[in-house]
Amino acid sequence: MKTKTTTAGKTAKIIGIFALACGLLFTGCAKKGDTGPAGPAGTNGTNGTNGNANVKSKTIFINGSEWTNTSGSSTVTKLIPEITTDIINTGAVLVYGEDTPGKWTALPVAMTSTAGVVLSYNYSIEAGKINLFIDNNTTTALTAGDIGNSNWRFVIMSGTGRLLNPNLKYNNYNEVKKAFNLKD
């Protein structure tokens, strides 16, 4: 069965839709009231004003036999894809060696062994890798036993992380860990 819509019917339909739209428009708007109290301030961690979501921490175990030892120097290279050209140009890579379980020392650092040998630990970075160095004040090549097995922690951050935290003691891993909410 076919129904015929009249002009009056069309007008009534348009008025009905207009009334419905106006009703939704006005009931959807809230009455302006007093401003509520300010929320709590953020913390200076990854979710606060000085945080940076682009900070990564990575721990690598290096066996003493992985080092290449020559007279007065030892080196090892590790692949770390998180070290990009952008990180090299605008960010930072921090390196910490584990002295004793849970105690991290920032590089560069020099230490004297019980035998009186001065060991200078340092590093360099390239896109995708890090080079660790141990220089000593003798002409003797270190051995795998001299170096031993060790854990190394790398913190890789974009340029904004360091800029937003100018007073952070970057040589203290525990402070860096706390500021950037890093997981071990």
Overview of the structural elements:
This protein has 184 residues and is of the alpha+beta class. The chain has helices at residues 7-27, 85-90, 144-147, 159-163, 173-179, and strands at 55-62, 68-70, 73-79, 92-100, 103-106, 109-112, 118-126, 129-136, 150-157. It has a five-stranded antiparallel beta sheet with strand order 2-3-8-7-6, with no helix packed on it. A four-stranded antiparallel beta sheet has the order 1-9-4-5. It is elongated.
Question: Would you kindly provide a brief summary of this structure?
Answer:
With 184 residues, this protein is of the alpha+beta class. Helix content is 23%, strand content 33%.
Which descriptors would you attach to this protein?
alpha+beta; 5-stranded antiparallel sheet; 5 helices; 4-stranded antiparallel sheet; single chain; 184 residues; 9 strands
- Model regions low in confidence, pLDDT < 50 over at least 5 residues: 24-30, 39-52
Strand content: 25-35%
Structural class: alpha+beta
Largest sheet: 5 strands, antiparallel
Instruction: Count every beta strand, where a strand is a DSSP E run of 2 or more residues.
Output: 9
State the end-to-end distance.
Answer: 75 Å
Q: What is the rounded Rg?
A: 31 Å
What is the molecular shape?
Answer: elongated
Strand order of the largest sheet: 2-3-8-7-6
Total count of helical runs of at least 4 residues: 5
Relative helix content: 10-25%
What is the H-and-E element order?
A: HEEEHEEEEEHEHH
